[in-house]
Give the backbone structure.
Amino acid sequence: MPLFEDSLPLPASGVEAEEEDRRFNGRRQFFAQIQVRQMDPPHAECIGTMRDLSRDGLYFVVRSQGYAIGARLRLILPRSGSEWTCEVVRTEALPNGGQGIGVRILGFGS
């Protein structure tokens, strides 16, 4: 199930304002630790930080650069037990060497 029944848009910044915004639902800032596991092929789990959430997607950051557009992921929010199957739709290299990842939620639960 979605964590929010409604969503509020966040102000666009820098690069986002210059690119076409294809989101259908607004985002909410939502900072939380998240467990990330690539599904195809299975990889070791890593820990990331979720930055925002909408009804159909979310954005998180990780320290590695190992995620590609089209990859399928299993994401778990440990505090609530929420779990999603997702597809990577956007990536960006971050100045600190990490990676920002935007995903589309494909399904909920296991």
Summary: The mean pLDDT is 79.
